């Protein structure tokens, strides 16, 4: 019986503030990889929260549970040959570390990318109107404003989206995947 090698899977975890550009970068990267015929899933944090994590709030415990659920799904998919691109705020270092450890335990490649957009720039972009609601007193607990965001201590890649286009950012992530032999 002949066995064929399973294509390499990996998780590309894009973390950053709301409106940092995570989802835009993830979609551009995902589209490029799909156009090349690769098995790709973009696990958008907002979609996961609506379905897999429905009912969770925004307490620290609920945010941790949400991140760990996304981490489980991404690790299982990546372990089975899918390139998982995960744009999610994931504000707490310990939650992200739990995801990293889960990947390490199964020897599944995990690439943490910090989408390092200053809060002022995120507030100007304000894709979902969250910063405006927070400023108007209609929203509390906004990550990076009145709720903490703990930047990654040692990400594989830092994207400074103030200084590059979303396409350039996606191309930079693609280059890291290629350098690591994951394409």
Describe the structure.
- Its EC number is 2.7.1.25.
- It catalyses: adenosine 5'-phosphosulfate + ATP = 3'-phosphoadenylyl sulfate + ADP + H(+).
- This is Adenylyl-sulfate kinase.
- This protein is an alpha/beta fold and about 180 residues long.
- It has one domain (about 10-180): P-loop containing nucleotide triphosphate hydrolases (Rossmann fold), CATH 3.40.50.300.
- About 45% of the residues lie in helices and about 15% in strands.
- The chain contains seven helices and five strands.
- Strands 2-3-1-4-5 form a five-stranded parallel β-sheet, sandwiched between helices.
- Helix 1 packs across helix 7.
- The chain is globular, with a radius of gyration of 16 Å.
Number of domains: 1
Please identify the structural class as seen in this structure: alpha/beta
The CATH level-2 architecture is identified as 3-Layer(aba) Sandwich
| Low-confidence sequence ranges | none
Mean pLDDT, all residues: 93
Order of helices and strands: EHEHHEHEHHEH
Strand fraction equals 5-15%
Rg over CA atoms, rounded to whole Å, is 16 Å
Shape: globular
**Total number of strands:** 5
Q: In order across it, which strands form the biggest sheet?
A: 2-3-1-4-5
Question: Quick one: CATH superfamily?
Answer: P-loop containing nucleotide triphosphate hydrolases
Largest sheet, strands/sense/barrel: 5 strands, parallel
Share of helical residues: 40-55%
CATH topology: Rossmann fold
What separation lies between the terminal Cα atoms? 26 Å
Helical run tally = 7
CATH class: Alpha Beta
Keywords: ATP-binding, Kinase, Nucleotide-binding, Phosphoprotein, Transferase
Catalytic activity: adenosine 5'-phosphosulfate + ATP = 3'-phosphoadenylyl sulfate + ADP + H(+)
Binding site for ATP: 16-23
Domain APS kinase: 9-159
């Amino acid at each position: 019986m002949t066995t064929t090698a399973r294509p390499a899977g990996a998780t590309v975890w894009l973390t950053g503030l709301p409106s940092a550009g995570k989802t835009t970068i993830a979609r551009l990267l995902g589209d490029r990889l799909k156009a090349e015929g690769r098995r790709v899933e973009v696990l958008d944090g907002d979609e996961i929260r609506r379905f897999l994590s429905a009912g969770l709030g925004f307490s620290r415990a609920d945010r941790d549970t949400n991140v760990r659920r996304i981490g489980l799904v991404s690790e299982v998919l990546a372990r089975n040959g899918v390139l998982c691109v995960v744009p999610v705020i994931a504000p707490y270092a310990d939650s992200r570390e739990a995801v990293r450890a889960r990947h390490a335990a199964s020897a599944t490649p995990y690439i943490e990318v910090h989408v390092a957009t200053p809060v002022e720039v995120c507030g100007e972009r304000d894709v979902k109107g969250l910063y405006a609601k927070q400023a108007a007193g209609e929203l509390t607990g906004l990550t990076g404003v009145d709720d903490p965001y703990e930047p990654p201590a040692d990400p594989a890649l830092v994207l400074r989206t103030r200084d590059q286009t979303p396409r350039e950012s996606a191309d930079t992530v693609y280059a890291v995947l290629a350098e690591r032999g994951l394409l």
